[in-house]
Structure formats: structure tokens, C-alpha cells
Amino acid sequence: MITAIVFINADVARIPEVAEAVAALEGVSEVYSVTGQIDLIAMVRVRGHEAVADVVADQVNKVPGVTATETHIAFRTYSQHDLEAAFSLGLE
Question: What is the Cα–Cα distance from 92 to 60, expressed in whole angstroms?
Fold first, then answer.
């Protein structure tokens, strides 16, 4: 499983519509509206690197209102559950 974090800049007047359209794409598991220099963050979870290109380049970038994207591929996943387990070792 490949996880990609996609930063999306969008036409400000269309952010809700862009978020809904991106969230509806196959391979996109969630979309967050965020503060800062980007407007949205999409989590893409697919089977392989080629599929990341299919989702981001062929679909996300073509959603009306998307003005730019920046994609980051995750190497490892750390969850809060795993961190809590690591910090609790030997404390029981």
C-alpha cells in the first residue's frame, strides 16, 4: 500500500466543491480543509506508484478549481497507538 499526502491549492471561492470532488475520487481516502499556505490536504492510498500518478496527475489535477498540487510519498506510517505503545514499554 502506497500512501501519498497531496497538498492542494484551489480557487478560494471553490474550496468546498473542490474538496468534495477530490474526496469522491477512487484512491482518495480523505480530504482536509486546512489553514496556512495550502487549502486542502488529500490522503491518497493506492496499491502502487503508478496508481499515485493515475490519481494525482490524471484526476486530482484535472478537478475544476485545483490550481496547484504538491505530492509527498510516505515511507513509513506511525500512528498514535504505536507511539503510545512505544512510550509505555516497561512502565507497567
Answer: 47
